[in-house]
Amino acid sequence: MVTNRTTVDYKPNNAAPRHLVRRHWRKLANRVPALVGLVILASVVCMAIGAPLVAPHDPFAQNLDGRLAPPTWAGGAYANLLGTDQLGRDELSRLIFGARISLLVGITAVFVAGATGVIVGLAAGFNGGLTDEVLMRFTDLMLALPFTLLIIAVIAVFGPSLVNVIMILGLTGWVPYARVVRAGVLSIREREFIAAAKAVGASNLRVMLQHILPNTIASAIVIGSVELANMILLESSLSFLGLGVQPPTPSWGNMLGETRNYLMSDWWLATFPGVAIAITAVSINLAGDWIRDVLDPHLVT
After folding, report:
1. CATH assignment at residue 216
2. Domain count of the fold of the chain
3. In whole angstroms, what is the distance from residue 55 CA to residue 51 CA?
4. Cβ atoms of residues 178 and 124 within 8 Å
5. Is residue 125 one of the residues assigned to a domain?
6. How far is CA 286 from CA 38, 110, 280, 291, 296, in A?
7. What is the pLDDT of residue 9?
8. Average pLDDT of the chain?
9. Does residue 164 form part of some domain?
10. Distance between CA 280 and CA 276 in Å, rounded?
11. Domain containing 247: what range?
12. Which runs of consecutive H residues, i.e. helices, occur in the chain?
């Protein structure tokens, strides 16, 4: 007896993901503010990554004979497009290298805060009971403390440095991630597919990592896109007060702090770092709005 077997080639349908990507990009093209924000943010990131190639001068090189030179269009030399600071260092080069520090602190602090908050939220929401009660009361305590004053107090104890700023910002900024992820876990853990996973013998860790986390991580990413701008502003504020990145390492915050005595006479020293901070923060928020629309299923149309 001969049996004829027909082989059917399975071809995964990738049309739906491609259609979803095209739809999101069409929405981005129609949202000019979000598109502008992404372009500016991408330019700042590229500038920071390629700082040694982009910067026209060594950001640490001093030239006391050319100190406090104005920008080129205000009568300064063409070699220093944005002028020089009180030690004769090129303002444009320090601005470019300062982007490295500000973005490094912001992105790393958001990652540390996000990872900590997601772990706390998963543990509290999935385990419930005493674990949930203890973690959420500790979260409420963190919310009750004045955030900026807490950071300043901790840095005053451990000392200002790049690593300390990153860790302190990260380990004090996890609260919003924990609360949002916990709320998502509470709504997901009773679903049918979670019960089915447990019925076939999946461990609690596997259920959390493979079934619950993928369904809640989008909310954490949305929060991170908003918190990135806040972290950059906090780093700039701490560096301005002398509690962040220490000179001579250039960051936008300590560039402002070093020139506070020249605000009335040499306007460009504080103007350009301030504008850089403002533009970067605004571009991150504009890009974050689009990321929220993409990742939040309730806002997708």
Report:
1. 1.10.3720.10
2. 1
3. 6
4. yes
5. yes
6. 8, 17, 10, 9, 16
7. 45
8. 82
9. yes
10. 6
11. 82-295
12. 15-30, 32-49, 51-54, 91-127, 129-144, 147-158, 162-172, 175-188, 192-199, 204-207, 213-240, 252-258, 268-295
Which single residue is written with the structure tokens 């910067």?
Answer: 55
Nearest one of 62, 87, 135, 100 to 269, comparing CA atoms? 87
Number of residues that make up the chain? 301
Residues 6+ apart with CB under 8 A from 32: none
Distance CA 210, CA 204 (A): 10
Amino acid at 204: N
Cis, peptide link before residue 248, omega less than 30° from 0: yes
Alpha-carbon 29 to chain mean position: 23
Q: Sort residue 115 into left (φ over 0), alpha (ψ -120 to 50) or beta.
A: alpha
Q: Can you tell me the mean pLDDT for 177-203? A: 84
The residue assigned the tokens 């049996």 is: 3
CA torsion 210-215-217-219 (nearest 10°) is -170
Residue 25 inside a domain? The answer is no
CA distance 49 to 40: 14
- Asked whether residue 15 is assigned to any structural domain, the reply reads no
Task: Dump pLDDT digits (tens) for 17-71.
Answer: 555 556 656 666 567 787 888 889 899 999 999 989 999 888 888 888 888 888 9
